[in-house]
Amino acid sequence: MGRVGKGNAAMAVLVAVLAMALLGVALADGPPSINQLPVKAHVLLSNGSNATGASYNVTVYYNGSSTVLDARAGTLPTGGGSIYHFSLNLNYSAENDTVILVVNTSFPYQRNQSNYTITAADVSNGYAIMLNLTLFNFPPAQVAGLAVASVAGQTQLNVSWSASSESDLALYRVYRSQSNFSSTASASNIANTTDDNYTDSGLTSDATYWYAIAPQDAEGNYNASVIPVAGVVADVLAPESVANLSASVSASTITLTWSAVTSNNDSTSTADVMGYMLYMANTTTPNATSPPQVPSNWVNIANTSNATLTHDHTGLTGYTYYFQVFAYDDAGHISRNSTQVNGSITTLSSSINLSAGWNLFSLPLQPSASGAQTILTGLNYTVLYWWNTSRQGWQSSTYLSGLGILDGELQVLEIGKGYWIKMLSPGTLTVSGTQQSQNVSLVATWTMVGYSQASSATVSSVFADVSGYVSLWRYNTSSSSWETNIKILGSFDGFADVEPGVGYWIRTSQNDSWSYG
Predict the structure, then answer these.
(1) Domain of 314: which CATH number?
(2) Are residues 296 and 192 located together in one domain of the fold?
(3) Within this chain, do residues 68 and 209 fall inside the same structural domain, yes or no?
(4) Which of 75, 125, 263, 330 sees the fewest Cβ atoms within 10 Å?
């Protein structure tokens, strides 16, 4: 601990106060009244270079604090000083009366005083001398290496710092605030410790706290000017469960919607939800689940961002589907289960009459299985063709009835496409499945297409948005002839409707797309 006059004024934060109190008798030609002593005193206050605007007051009392002989107050400039003088005649009543010299400073807060009792010898000698008064030590320097660390899974912060080398260090004052601060007056003194670390527990999850350490010496001096360090408590809370989950059904699509999660599972507000995980099961007895584990028979069908609160799950077939949505945060915590919702996709059935010979057909519904041999089971046919627009060539397969095998590269039938099939005898193709919307790619020549809906629609309405439409062709098996619909001067002329189960050739003047459903 340094003192003024010992060469360490530059390292001080504030006042180095050196008090010299000299009490003497100012003798006149004759002896003064025995009940009066002339008194003179000087107090020198100097301000260190690291402090600004430190205030002080000096007070002289007589016989306790009831009688003030003199008082001065002021502000010390950085690196400056002030000399306090007083000179007065002290009227005393008897020996053992006391003169008290008190000095206070504000930065850092310090207080010291010197008491002097008038003795019989003072009275006899006609003067008294107070001992020199050294008032203040410099406060300890700020600690180095201050660090604040979170603990995974815990609502605590570990604060550590390098030990002070102060010779008369008494303790460390630990200060905390939830905002930045530069003075201990703006923070809470949460603990005093002699260790060079402190564990602060019971904090708020994912919250920020600021800490500062003020070393204090044996005389109670400490520096109130501090440089704090911030730490963030580990996020230990999962988001609250997703609320208001609902499911609506349209054809083969189930649309899910839900409300945004804005709180943790302890109801405290949170802004760290990163997104949502959507799970589906198609069993009639979905497993119960304990958070945050999802049962094994549920499938993660999609993940969305925190700004996306809806999802369309398409291409579903005839089942009842169950859904749950989970929220997750930036620490990887997953919410508890949402309420389960469900939606049912209705299975439809449609029949197509096929004549002996060549037939141009399409699938009116999306079957649960797309294998061509499975779909065409029971039909007496020989070959199957589809025009591959990408390579401008045919794909085909031949049914080997003796072996019960469909041999060739065309093994899958898809909705939205047209197919040629050569029947050896008339038959009925029955398709069970769901109605689905389609977006069919059209090339700037010929494309084989199908209309996969539950009922017919007019050509003019279905193809109104196909700007490159030139003509539409269908094959009449009964007459073995073609029927057409041609667009002339913006008007559609020819057969009026497109029908489910029928295959078509469409000619377009440019690459385009055809959407319906």
Answers:
(1) 2.60.40.10
(2) no
(3) no
(4) 125
Which residue did the predictor score with more confidence, 199 or 84?
199
Q: In this structure, which amino acid lies at residue 144?
A: A
Q: Is 394 inside any structural domain? A: yes
Examine residue 492 and state whether it is found in any structural domain, yes or no: yes
Residue type at 279? Y
Dihedral sign of CA atoms 358, 362, 364, 369 in order: positive
Q: Which residues contact 479 (CB under 8 A, 6 or more apart)?
A: none
H-type helices in 100-211, by residue range? 120-125
Q: What is the reported pLDDT for 221? A: 79
Claim to verify: residue 425 and residue 296 sit in the same structural domain: no
pLDDT tens, residue by residue, 175-218:
999 999 999 999 999 999 999 999 999 999 889 999 999 999 88
**Mean pLDDT, range 67-79, rounded to an integer:** 66
CA–CA dist 458, 464 (Å, integer):
10
**Residue 320: CB atoms within 10 Å:** 12
Q: Long-range contacts of range 55-60, CB-CB < 8 Å, 24 or more positions apart?
A: 55/105, 55/106, 55/107, 56/15, 56/17, 56/82, 56/103, 56/104, 56/105, 56/106, 57/103, 57/104, 58/84, 58/101, 58/102, 58/103, 59/101, 59/102, 60/86, 60/99, 60/100, 60/101, 60/102
For residue 185, what are the domain limits? Answer: 147-232
Predicted confidence band of residue 16 (pLDDT cuts 50, 70, 90): very low
Alpha-carbon distance 253 to 276, whole Å?
A: 20
Query: What average pLDDT score do residues 151-179 get?
Result: 94
pLDDT tens per residue, range 426-448: 999 999 888 878 899 999 999 99
Question: What is the domain-level CATH number for residue 81?
Answer: 2.60.40.3880
SS3 label, residue 459: helix
343 CB neighbour count, 10 Å cutoff: 21
Residue that finishes a domain, picked among 232, 264, 297: 232
